[in-house]
Amino acid sequence: MKSYLLKTCLLVLALSSTVIACGGGGSSSDDSSGGGNLVINGPGGSNSDINNALEQLDQDDAAANNNDNNNDDAESNTSDDDVELAFNISDAVALFTHSEVLEEIDPISNQIQAQLIDIEGYTNLLAQQNDGSLSFAINTEYDINVLYSVLSPDKQHLYVALDNGWGWWGSATAGCVGCDYLELIIEQNCALFVVDMSDNSFVCAVEGLFPQGMDAAYEKTVGPIKPIQFDENGNMYFLATPFTITTDTFCDTSGGFDDGSSDDILTPGEEDSDGGDSENITGTCQDIDVLEEIEWAPRLYQVTSGSNGSGTAAALTSADDNVNYMLVYPNGDIALHASSDSDSQLSLRQGNTTSSLTSTGNWGVDFFALDTGNSVLFGEATANTDVTNGLRMARPNSTAISYASLDATLFVNSDETPVPRHITLGANGNLYALVETTTSSSNQVLRIYQLLPYNDTPVKELTISSDSDWWQTLNRMPLIATGGYLFYSRSHSVAGTTIDTLHAVNLTTLADTTLPLADDVLYDIYTWQLDGSTIHFIGLDQTSDIVVAGQIDTTAISQASTSAEFSAAVTYTTAAPALASDAVINGTTRLVLSAEDNSTASSPNVNTIHADSGNPYSLSIEFNTAINKASTETNVILTDASDNQVDTMRIWNENTLHLLPDLDANPEGDSLSDSNGTTPLVSGETYLLRIGNGITSEANTSLAPVADTLIAID
After folding, report:
1. How, if at all, do strands 3-4 and 19-21 pair?
2. Count of H helices and E strands in the chain?
3. pLDDT (average), residues 448-458
């Protein structure tokens, strides 16, 4: 692991607006418009720059000595009269995190111009109003860069994770405004705030912890699920690295800066003996709050449910673990991907017990996801993958962990080598897999398959090497399956510019419709999210640098038959003000969501049983309403012709139960006890699927009787 001694290149005067920061290799700059920040590029900065900075420290000395360093007043909007920090999210419908901190939006709207009168610092968190206009979500005298925001399960609080300016892995960003965003963090000892959306009041959610960031690799591994998650009881789980604030002494010098080593804190009259200029030091000294040395190694933390969303964080993993990714089950179980210098594993944490799902000596998984029951779906790292065991499932039971898998070669031709890239849960109850391969004609393709119920006919095949960037396509291709269609976004490279198109694939006919956006407009689609039957997306109109918030009415799409009807199903709120010529939105958080449909049918029934004589790999039962999972699994049994029960892995998605039969014989007598692959049903044999009478819905109403289903495998 890399270690970064931040205090050697960042000196922050407590409770002042002065920051001296390493600039990451860019030229020195004096940002006079953003809150008094002076940026110096590390030990290589000139003595005049350094001395100017030290003079500024001297000038602020009197004010600093009069400030109160006690940060205990976390309940108020400010911990000191000199600290200006306020959130403005109460009337917003969505929040955007811009890729850069901004002082103003150009062209500037009257609404934002009025706000700028009192803004001295920069921020990248923008709020969208009902009319589509953007405003700053934070008023501050600091430079604040937000990593992401997360809405609480009760939709009453917003968690705001702050960037420390040193990147996820500790590298400073060259050319940024301020280059670091530690001043507020050091001032408040806080990098994760929770905001009450009713009145914009806020508190520190947890002190002394840097939240884990998100990048393209993060989203490729676990999707758009952020590193702050909740269980069904409202307990919060998050990944973070501890930090410590300390007070050090820094001295002005008449003879120049101690440039031999910045580890020493010199006092007046002390001789520099570390290989520098060896000059006698004279001048004044300052006590300065600085960040202690950080070993960037995220751990898993939990905060138990509280009234205002804050509390004491309890570490659930040790300091030796480096937890890269996590996904939390509703019951509080957690799937963890952690790595060390020599190993990386996917594990399942249940209470105080942690079980490895992957073998040691490899680099873990390329991706993993959770079903809506209690199973983990994942793919092993490609460098060590046995493709016959390429799409894997693991599920805890009362005594051990059950395993199942699907042979990835099922999804490619005999002369191709498959690389599973992701598993996506559709809102229609099905599961979909992205599988990459290279065809015999050397075309690099990405195929979208219906994984469960298993179908070896691709829903869509995309050539990704000829007209688009390979990595861009893999990282920016979300899938949403609902209303009889599969929706996806596709990146293309056109004349050196990456543009995106939106598509809807009819899951019955497999016809692909490019959704009409606007004539002669090049869109860069950032994020999209399914809310009820509407897909919300954010995009940049690259022809005019306008950020657009749009919606896809999936119900209208399912009823459309003409180009005009497809076009009418895609609408836009209003064009938001242009942010910049290189505007990029890193993420969004919708604050106004559709009311959840908690209705439960009075008479639960089986809608469909997916049992195909040509499919020996899976069976699926689709119910018409939310069903009690425990009663269902107890009463669903698959037997062979001799009435012997066949072991099946149970995978849930929405109201659909997927069964993966496994006839693999092993000494333990339990075919699901090993991860050596799944043996499907046998061709020429007959099997019986029984759905018993003890199944109930979540509303505790009984399932109508279902006849046994006879399955003859071809």
Report:
1. unpaired
2. 9, 50
3. 94
Strand partners, 87: 138
Strand 190-196 vs strand 202-207: parallel, antiparallel, or unpaired? antiparallel
What is the edge-to-edge ordering of all strands in the sheet holding 444-452?
Answer: 419-425, 431-438, 444-452, 460-463
pLDDT digits (tens, 9 = 90+) for 19-29: 322 222 222 22
CA distance to 161, 254, 267, 495, 537, per residue, from 281 (Å): 41, 7, 7, 59, 59
Mean residue pLDDT across the chain: 75
Burial of residue 199 (CB within 10 Å: 0-12, 13-18, 19+) is exposed
Question: How far is residue 672's CA from residue 550's CA, in Å, rounded to a whole number?
Answer: 45
| DSSP reduced 3-state for 499 | strand
The total of other beta-carbon atoms located within 10 Å of residue 469's CB is 15
φ/ψ of 619, rounded to 5, equals -135, 150
Rg of the chain, C-alpha, whole Å: 28
CB 26 within 8 A of CB 45: no
For residue 500, give the nearest of 522, 471, 516 by alpha carbon: 522
Which residues, including other chains, have CB under 8 Å from residue 435's CB and lie 6 or more apart? 408, 411, 412, 418, 419, 420, 421, 446, 447, 449
Residue 644 neighbours by CB distance under 10 Å: 8
Q: How far apart, in whole angstroms, are the C-alpha atoms of residue 359 and residue 371?
A: 22
Digit-coded pLDDT (tens) for 613-670: 999 999 999 999 999 999 999 999 999 999 999 999 999 999 999 999 999 866 566 7
Taking alpha carbons only, the member of 116, 13, 256, 221 closest to residue 577 is 116
In sequence order, the 6+-apart residues with CB closer than 8 A to the CB of 47 are 256, 257
In whole angstroms, give the CA distance from residue 208 to residue 246: 12
How far is C-alpha 289 from the geometric centre of its chain's CA atoms?
32
In three-state secondary structure terms, 355 is: strand
In 340-443, which ranges are E strands?
A: 344-350, 353-356, 365-370, 376-380, 391-396, 401-406, 419-425, 431-438
Question: Are the CB atoms for 348 and 395 separated by under 8 Å?
Answer: no
**How many whole angstroms separate alpha carbon 3 and alpha carbon 343?**
19
Burial of 360 (0-12, 13-18, 19+ CB in 10 A): exposed
- Residue 531: closest CA among 559, 503, 550, 512: 550
DSSP character for 699? T
Nearest one of 370, 368, 402 to 661, comparing CA atoms: 402
pLDDT over 50 (residue 191): yes
CA distances to 6, 223, 592, 688 from 94, rounded to whole Å, are 34, 20, 7, 50
Burial 71-107 (b: 16+ CB within 10 A, else e): beebeebebbebbbbebbbeebbbbbbbbbbbbbbee
Distance CA 456, CA 488 (A): 20
**CB contact set of 230 (below 8 Å; sequence gap of 6+):** 152, 153, 236, 237, 328
Its pTM stands at 0.80
Going through 70-143 in order, the beta strands assigned E by DSSP cover 85-87, 94-102, 123-128, 134-136, 138-140
Tell me which residue of 458, 486, 453 sits closest to 608, measured CA to CA. Answer: 453
